[in-house]
Model the fold of this input.
Amino acid sequence: MKNDQDSSLRRHLIELLKGGSAHARFEEVIAGIPAKLRGQKPSGLPHSPWMLLEHMRIGQWDILEFSRDAKHKSPDFPAGYWPAEQAPPNEKAWDKSVAAFRSDLKAMVELVKDPSIDLFAKIAHGDGQTILRQAMMTADHNAYHLGQLVLVRKMLGAWTE
Done:
């Protein structure tokens, strides 16, 4: 791939991962959720803000670790990708989950930024996955669940347009 095309693709992937344009950004969606609402499920919906945050964190972490560690073992599906409890055990757990999500997102962006990584090369320990695919899957998964989190916040009365 020509260098300018490679750079352009990497810039677009990073924009997609960080959100914006047609997607909500993590920072906007997560900001200001009152602690008392983090473990509440709106009537008729299956997830609380905590459940969605943890699911996003676990899913993103799994994709990232698979992408860079041949020894990584994914959690059992689907149970291993969702928290056991509806609410965080404490505020520190919420903050830790938010920080881990941010850290792993930054690490995925760094993988995409690294010009020594061929975005199209098959991951040696995978079955056809590429870093390009993993980055797009991360962005897609995050965008989907950020949309759910916006809906949950709206239904809990904790979202202002």
Observations:
- The first helix runs from residue 3 to 18.
- Residues 53 and 98 are 7 Å apart (CA to CA).
